[in-house]
Amino acid sequence: MTDTAEWERPIPTLDGVSKTYWEAGARGELLFQQCPACGNRQLYPRAMCTACGETPEWVRASGRPARTPPARSGRRPWSCSRASG
Ligand SMILES: [Zn+2]
Questions:
Q1: Quick check: 35 pLDDT over 50?
Q2: Rounded CA gap, 67 and 46, in Å?
């Protein structure tokens, strides 16, 4: 175990936006933000929802794997190809 006096990596600065996140992490909890207006989820902490600008709320992660919608056949959210059409 490393003594904290020997810790040489940057220690996060707790500001008004990130303080809740880091304090929960110190307790062993993972929090993320969810927008009460549009449902957008985001991590890392921000003052506003990245989708609509509303003030997000904190939600504790369940620890269960995320359920994602099934991929649509033939379509990808990214492409390595420059070919069009
Ligand atoms: Zn939103």
A1: yes
A2: 24
- Does the pTM exceed 0.70? no
State the distance from the centre of ligand 1 to the C-alpha of 27, rounded, in angstroms: 27
User: Ligand 1 centroid to 9 CA: how many Å?
Assistant: 34
DSSP per residue over 24-80, as a string?
Answer: HHHTT--EEEE-TTT--EESS--SS-TTT-PPPEEEE--SSPPP-PPPPTT--S--S
**Ligand 1 mean position, distance from CA 37 (Å):** 5
